[in-house]
Structures are given as C-alpha cells and as structure tokens.
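Q: I'm writing up a methods section and want to include an example of the input and output format. Could you take the sequence below and give the corresponding predicted structure tokens, formatted cleanly so I can copy it straight into the document?
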Amino acid sequence: MEVRTLRKSDAEQAWELDSDAFHVPRERKQSFLRWFEPGRAMGIFADRRLVAMTGAHGFGQFFGGRSVPMGGLASVAVAPDQRGKGHAQRVIRAVLDAMRERGEVISSLFPAMTRLYRGLGWEVAGNFLYRTVSPRALQTLAAPEKGRVRPGGAEDMDALRACYASFARGVNGFVDRPESWWRRAGEDLNERSVFVAEDDRGDVEGYLVYRQVDGQYSSFGGPFRIRVDDLVARSRDAALVLWRLLGSWASQVEQIYYRGPAEDPLLLLLPEQEVQVAAEIRWMTRMVDAPGALAARGFPPGVEVEVDLALRDPILAANDGRFVLSVSKGRGRLEPGGSGTLGLDVGAFSAIYTGWAPAELLARSGRLEGGSPEQRAALDAAFSGPTPWMLDEF
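A: Here is the clean output for your methods example:
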C-alpha cells in the first residue's frame, strides 16, 4: 500500500472512485475533472490502483467576524472490495497532516456517518437546515419601504460576491468562499434565476439565486418546485423584496425549499409561523491546530476570560496537554501551561469553539470534566452567539 498526494495523472481514477462511491451521474465527469485539485487530495494505492481517497477544500470559515483557515474534508471514498481495512482512517490522518502543514487550523465536514469522524476528533458543531415555506404565505409579507428588485446575471458577480462577504462575516459557520467557488458559480448562472435587491442609491443589499426542480404535481398547476440556492439579505427591505418575489410563484408551486438558520429571520417577517423544517444535517468540525484556531477566531469585545484546560487529542500530539485559554479585547490565545482544571477532548472543544455546544451540555454528556460553574459560564460567554450554520454543502 502506498499513501501519497494525488497527481493530475490520477484524475481519471479519482473520478471513477468518487462517482461509484457517491452515485455521481456520468454527465458530471467533465465538471469533476475540470475542478479536480490533485494537490489537495490524498490517496491509497494498491498495485497502482487507487483504492481510497479524500480531499480538503481550501476554505475559510467565519467565527466571531473573522475568517478562520479551514480544510473542508470531502469525498472520503473507499473501493467496495477494500472496505473494512482501515483505509478511510489512514487517508483522513494523512489529510489532517497536510492541512496542518498548510496552516488550515480547523476542518469541517458533512458526515455520512458520525462514528468514523468522531473517533478521529471531529464533533457535531453546526446546523444545515432545509426549510419549506409556501409562496402563499410569502404573499402575506409587508411591502418594503424602499428599494427595488431587478434581474441579475454574470455581470453582477463582483457585487454579489461583495454582498455575500459582508453578510457572511456576521454569521458563525459561513464559508469564506474562495475565488474558485465564485468562478464555478458564475458559469452556472445561466441555469439559475438571479435577482438583485438594491437600495435607493443602487447599492446591492441582497440577492436571490433559485432554480426550478422536478417534483410532485402541484394542486395549483406546475409539476415542479422552487429550490433556493442563495438568498442573502443585509437589510429588512432587501429580505422583503426577495421573499415577496418568491411569493409570486403561488399560482404554480406549493412549496419553496431553502436553507436557513435555526434562528430563521423569516419568522420575524411573516405574520404567522408558516416555516417548516424539511431536513436537517449536522456538520462536524475539528481543531487541527488548537492554538492557531483560537488566535484566528474573533470574540465578543466585552468578554474577558481566562480558563485552564486539559485538552486530549490522541491523533495530533501538538493539541494534547494543558493549556491556558485567555480572551480579551476580541482576541483569543491558547498557550501551554496552567492547572488543567477543565478537562475535555478535542472534539468537545471544537463543538464549544463554533458556539454549537454549551459547556453544561458537554458536561452532562460526559465530554467535559471539572471546573466550577463560573469557569464553565466563562467558556460559554467567550464562544456565545446564535447557532452556527452553513449555506454551502461540500
């Protein structure tokens, strides 16, 4: 067995393994090959045959208003005849080492199974919710006080990108989308409907990207649904004008599908609670470099915290040991030393880090030991905020 970084010459084998493992339609082959990043993927070879692989997208992820370098683990695939031999763990460990060398201080992923990744240090750390709302409910929204909506297109990509970046900084868990993401999105716009919300000065305050997808016949007419790919609104008026546009589909479709947070702002705009959860996925995060992750994240400016931690990480030795966590003036540090008053594993610390799990919840689950109520409350204050969520799935 040989474990190594994939090369451009491995692209065909990578496609065959990925498409088989995840039932990817054959028509997506050229897109896979075009966007394949061999230097960011690791593979296991048996007699020159690629039998296992995974990769890590080069993202940032916003926490506390700052973009934290993140490796987005994806495409963990093992050939059917090679499963059960520990290949997945081997290739993931190799990718972890590569992420650390590149300075990606955290890693997030969407798990097909939790047990594998929890055993390697990842933990549930945020939400990915598909919600539904009927267009008829959206027609009950108030009219915006100002601003307008207009069709958009590829010529608006720079403005959409700037709008997204401004919005994403304020959302714990949002992906800091790289240049390659926006290039790919720009090429796909001709298959989507795009609308832009502008204020009275013509500045972009929000945008909407959606598509029609096949579905059950609606009692209103059309045999399709509306799926929202992106809806970003930096103001109340932008949100109202975009949601009301989706409400115009009431004569044809029964449901609008979109991704939203646990604390959904649409519930504050609708006169009734007519939003439903269609599906929920919980993504996972792992600290790759714990001190680096604390230094990269932002914190509430008024919080002053110092807590002694005993951190356990059997995979990455540099994260294992006693540390002093200190937060002051919106910045954090994790330095070796201290008494190790609060004990927890790296996965539990990662769940606190994103703001998904409070200290008492982890203590009741047996994942955090020791410390006074005041010390646990201090941890919660440092990492407080709305439930982290993502708009992107990878």
